[in-house]
Amino acid sequence: xxxVLIIDDEExxxxxxxxxxxxxxxxxxxxxxxxxxxxxxxxxxxxxxISDVKLPDGNGVDLTATIxxxxxxxxxxxxxxxxxxxDGVQAIKKGAFDYLTKGDHQEKIxxxxxxxxxxxxxxxxxxxxxxxxxxxxxxxxxxGEDKSVKASIALAKKVSATDTTVLLLGETGTxxxxxxxxxxxxxxxxxxxxVALNCSAxxxxxxxxxxxxxAEGAFTGATKSKKGxxxxxxxxxxxxxxxxxxxxxxxxxxxxxxxxxxxxxVGDSKVRKIDVRFIAATNRNLxxxxxxxxxxxxxxxxxxxxxxxxxxxxxxxxxxxELARHFIRQFSLKTNKxxxxxxxxxxxxxxxxxxxxxxxxxxxxxxxxxILADGDLDVSLLPADFNIExxxxxxxxxxxxxxxxxxxxxxxxxxxxxxxxxxxxGLTTLYQKIKDYSLETLSK
Length: 444
Known about the structure:
47% of the residues lie in helices and 14% in strands. The protein has 444 residues and is an alpha/beta fold. Strands 2-1-3-6-7 form a five-stranded parallel beta sheet, with helices on both faces. A five-stranded parallel beta sheet has the order 9-12-15-8-16.
């Protein structure tokens, strides 16, 4: 059951009302003043407040406004005296759930309290869920201490508080959708849908239907009307990934939506209106493509109101160990395995890799390594084609020899006889080196 706070300076009335409510199974706390009531709210988990309008240190109408501002998920029921119903009306305007007139409140309080507590419980569950979503998708989820990352996060935080269109620029795999989600879940639209559409995933004709929806009979197979992504994202955010792949004819229709909020479903003559915040992303140079005629200039200017460039992973190598450990924890949970410890050599190898696939490639490499690991994460778990090169501090003969044996073992899929032949050494010698370098997991 819900927790109820009664704020009233009339002690006898307060205790009587508390007793009535407690008999219905509610947990009840009491306060004699507005100040005491606010302290209880700060200390306890309250669902519904029942407050008198006339309090020794304030007015219940003003208190309602304060409670709704500081505790928006808490519902307030105001008690008014005869002849002061206007106070109850004002309280509702300030956010109160409802009001009751003293004298007949004991008969009506339980049904009203039931409705108020039900709403409060749902709102507080929603608030908890929203907090979880922000923790999962908000800016705290973007890792990195490199100054380029901090600069991009700072820009994203500033624009998240607005409805401004955002253009995210960066190579494939740099985390553009992660940024788009963070901007949405830190915005005023956070409780509304976040919808993502990859423009490169659909052919030209189908993309228009996916984006704007279609009417029944608009084309072969359209047996019923269907909403598009722009309608699904109403009052929320639509993320258009790989916007540079969109056909130039469709770009004109998208521009109309951006400028007017109006669109037509495919095969429909009815104009529809939507309220959507747009975030676009691309790995192309749209400015150059607009100059070459491959992308509409007017759409480029409309999309690039606020541009954020995301750095490639190779430009922030010092962040790689932190990212790697994050993904190790993530995939250890996913695979129900204890966290394997990455060796210094493993982390150095990650930092030296060119990472053409950026964070997405790193994530895939870590997932593979965690699955294969029986102990620590060592370079032996990295793919055969992985760029394991010695750095200036690791040019001793043993390190170079170990890495070369690893590459050949990967190439032969762990066949020791074939590996010894390719290395030009005896099988017994290879066995000894496998033991010395702890490469048993690579051989068979």
